[in-house]
Structure formats: structure tokens, C-alpha cells
Amino acid sequence: EKFALGLYQWCIVDFATQQLLYVGGMSEEMTGKPLSYWAGASPEKYVTELAIAEDIPYWTAYVQFIYQYILQNPYQSEHRSIHAHVYVRMKNKHGDFRSVVMQFIDWIVEDGGVRYCLCQTTDISHIKSNGPPQMAILEVNKGVNQVLVSHAPAVLPDRAINIPSFTTREKQVIRLLAAGNSSKMIASILGIARNTVENHR
User: Fold this and answer.
1) For 35-48, what is each residue's pLDDT tens digit?
2) What value does the mean pLDDT take over residues 65-69?
3) pLDDT tens figures, 104-113
4) Residue 133, class by beta-carbon neighbours within 10 Å (0-12 exposed, 13-18 middle, 19+ buried)?
5) Neighbour count for residue 177 (Cβ, 10 Å)
6) Which residue from 146, 62, 48, 74 is spatially nearest to 103, judged by alpha carbons?
7) DSSP per-residue codes, 141-199
8) What angle do CA 181, 184, 190 make, to 5 degrees?
9) Mean pLDDT, to the nearest integer, of 83-96?
10) Contact indicator for 104, 43 with CB cutoff of 8 Å
11) 3-state DSSP assignment of residue 52
12) Measured distance CA(168)–CA(146) in Å, rounded
């Protein structure tokens, strides 16, 4: 509750399996769906079902940027902390779009990749009107603040929406690669041969 500015829902994302491991908060009020609907779902399902379509490429790019930013120095301490936020438009339980902020609160790094991340999505429509997606990262290091902000353009260029088509297995392999897994590790996780993983890559 201490991170919430309004209605909220939190989840722990497992980047290796691409699942929402645990979910909590005000799911029905936020999304119109019970917690059980989202538990075990993929982050892709959450975003695809709830985000406004033109925000999704930005949302994806911002999450990837934050992931890489965390990996540059993944450990928070009493001297250093990172506060990453993504602002997008998401459906409420009535199907209307409103502004939300997704906060990246904490994470666990394993084998050179972010394995788990605690995220919270909060309805901020009472303090921010619908607008284009945005990302902000506040890094505090020994009392010195650094802020990175990215403002998305109001209109997404048509050429940016040409997303290639992938098979389900290719998507699994890509996600596991993005999480920092080697081909050998991916083969073990998916229960397939290493050569098969290489073919999918």
C-alpha cells in the first residue's frame, strides 16, 4: 500500500517463464477480472488485454530498457536505489482507458539476468490525464539524484508497428534469451534439444 497513489494491483513476474507468479491488490476494481484470472498469466496477456494498442510498443521498449538499466548495476543498497516508472493508458473495469503508472519496486538477479521483479500498476487518472506513454527512472546514488525521462510522441509512426510474426516456441526462446539464458539453459527449461533451440534462434 505504501507505493499506491490510488487503485492498484501488484504482481511478481518470473522473466524466465514469462508468468505472473503472484498477483494481489485490487484486481477486480482495476481490471474487472479476479486475481485468479491473472495468476499464472503471461505479462504479454496482461498488456495485450488491458493496454491501449498504440502504447504497447512503447510499454515493451520501456520495460526492456529498464531491464537492461537494472543489469548495469542490479543491486540496491542503503546508498543506491533505482525507482523506475512507466506511464501508459490502460482499461479499467468498465473498458474505459485511463492513465496508470507501472512501478518496478524490487527484483532478484540470477545468472546474469533479472529473474523476478515486483511490479505495481496504479490508477493515477485522478492526478494525470490520458496522454502518450512515458518512462521515468530516478536513480539515487550516495545522495546524488539522476533522472532519466523519455517522452513518447503523441502519434506512433506507422512504420514502427511492423512487428514480425513468431511461432509460440520462437517467442518462448526469445523471452528466455532476453532473460539472459544460454541455449543450453533454454534447452533444459523447455525440455528440447540444444540444436532445436539454435534453430529457433
Assistant:
1) 999 999 999 999 99
2) 87
3) 999 998 888 8
4) buried
5) 17
6) 62
7) ETTEEEEEEEEPPSS--GGGG-PPP--HHHHHHHHHHHTT--HHHHHHHHTS-HHHHHH
8) 80
9) 92
10) no
11) coil
12) 39
Q: What's the full length of the chain, in residues?
A: 201
DSSP at 22: E
Q: Look-up: residue for cell 496482461?
A: 46
Terminal C-alpha separation, the chain: 41
Question: How many Cβ atoms sit within 10 Å of the Cβ of residue 130?
Answer: 12
Give the residue, 197 or 74, on which the prediction is more confident.
197
Beta strands in the chain (DSSP E): 8-14, 19-25, 80-91, 97-110, 113-123, 134-141, 144-151
At 56, the amino acid letter reads I
Hey, what's the cell of 113? 539476468
Tell me the three cell numbers of residue 5. 497513489
User: What is the Cα–Cα distance from 16 to 11, expressed in whole angstroms?
Assistant: 15
CA pair distance 16, 110, nearest whole angstrom: 10
Per-residue confidence (pLDDT) for residue 100, from 0 to 100: 93
Strand duo 8-14 + 19-25: pairing: antiparallel
Where do we find the cell 536505489? Answer: 81
* Residue 47: its H or E element: helix 43-50
